[in-house]
């Protein structure tokens, strides 16, 4: 899957602009990738249409590699669909009732235990677990066992009593014993049916829950859409939990659930153990669905920091031969933000090899250079050739250094101007020479 995307990337890479044709090829691959990740086909269709529009409108000039722009647009689109930010539980009401719903085997009981553990540790809550799945005696035992492991009380009345009566009693018990969170583990079915939905609606009415969390198995496949739709229609869920992400699933179900219900995904389950639960991070999930996290983080780094307009401005000045000290300083700042200078050089297309880069000294030198340049007038910065002995002395005094330092800076500038002149002959979008020497 990610191999295919990488191949498409390679094809686009090295071309100066994105054409409709090569975009289409890339998006076809992404479409297949999403379908393979079990994203619902309708969701995929809309996603591709949106992404195409955005990518075509993007200015790829100045980007280091145009193909990365497409991946970034796709990634950002995914994050937006998945919810942008992390969503936590709503504890604003006392007691906070959390009702767990979902198909049989989706992970309701396990996740109830996980949440009980998490909120005990993280928020110092005093939860009560309620065994409201009365259709399988084993279900009650399972929750009791979990409660013992966690040292969290479990309210249970066996299976000869209605679920509605159990939760009524549990609410009273919770109040008496000052439980600030009541987690209701409900019954599931292999398939959705009306009696179950009716029972869940009754429980909702009795407990007035702050959260109704739909638990879905990440391995559900295309049917996840119907499950999400059904539960949401009947119960107006407040959030979802995607379980079994420790398996092979790429997590495409997260997209489908979001698309259908628009509720936040609050947790992901990553194993059978009781601490195998995590908040849901949309950007991580986007990386997972695409299967190319490294590429994406590189794109973001480059795009965030290496401001395109500044780069273009500098390149234009190089080509016009009007590269001045302010430009040099600007460049030093941009590069500093990217990380160690020696590493950055390798990322810039066409950058000639520089022999004496000492990363440890770079910060100190940058500060020195700054102080000297800031002591110059605009005219001097634009054209350092006007710097005579008198001016140099004034500048040295102004920044508390000596004339030798100023001379060193001018020498450095001349070298960098020479280098820039070489680079000015390179096309900034491709890093290729614009004319053969
Ligand atoms: P319920 O019927 O909805 O209550 O589902 P259970 O909580 O009983 O879970 C069904 C099975 O899935 C059990 O064997 C759990 O151990 C397993 N399970 C639940 N969550 C996860 C998870 O995040 N990862 C893995 N690998 N297994 C899970
Ligand atoms: Mg259960």
UniProtKB/TrEMBL annotation:
GTP binds at residues 102-109, 185-189, 243-246. GO terms for biological process: SRP-dependent cotranslational protein targeting to membrane. Its EC number is 3.6.5.4. Residues 427-437 have a biased composition (Polar residues). Keywords: Cytoplasm, GTP-binding, Hydrolase, Nucleotide-binding, Ribonucleoprotein, RNA-binding, Signal recognition particle. PROSITE patterns: SRP54. It is an enzyme of class 3 (hydrolase). It catalyses: GTP + H2O = GDP + phosphate + H(+). Residues 264-277 form the SRP54-type proteins GTP-binding domain. It is found in: Cytoplasm. GO terms for molecular function: 7S RNA binding; GTP binding; GTPase activity. Gene3D superfamilies: P-loop containing nucleotide triphosphate hydrolases (3.40.50.300), Signal recognition particle SRP54, nucleotide-binding domain (1.20.120.140), Signal recognition particle, SRP54 subunit, M-domain (1.10.260.30). InterPro entries: AAA+_ATPase (IPR003593), P-loop_NTPase (IPR027417), Signal_recog_part_SRP54_M_sf (IPR036891), Signal_recog_particl_SRP54_hlx (IPR013822), Signal_recog_particle_SRP54_M (IPR004125), SRP (IPR004780), SRP54 (IPR022941), SRP54_GTPase_dom (IPR000897). GO terms for cellular component: signal recognition particle. Its main location: cytoplasm. Part of the signal recognition particle protein translocation system, which is composed of SRP and FtsY. Belongs to the GTP-binding SRP family. SRP54 subfamily. NCBIfam families: ffh. Involved in targeting and insertion of nascent membrane proteins into the cytoplasmic membrane. Binds to the hydrophobic signal sequence of the ribosome-nascent chain (RNC) as it emerges from the ribosomes. The SRP-RNC complex is then targeted to the cytoplasmic membrane where it interacts with the SRP receptor FtsY. This is Signal recognition particle protein. It comes from Coprobacillus cateniformis.
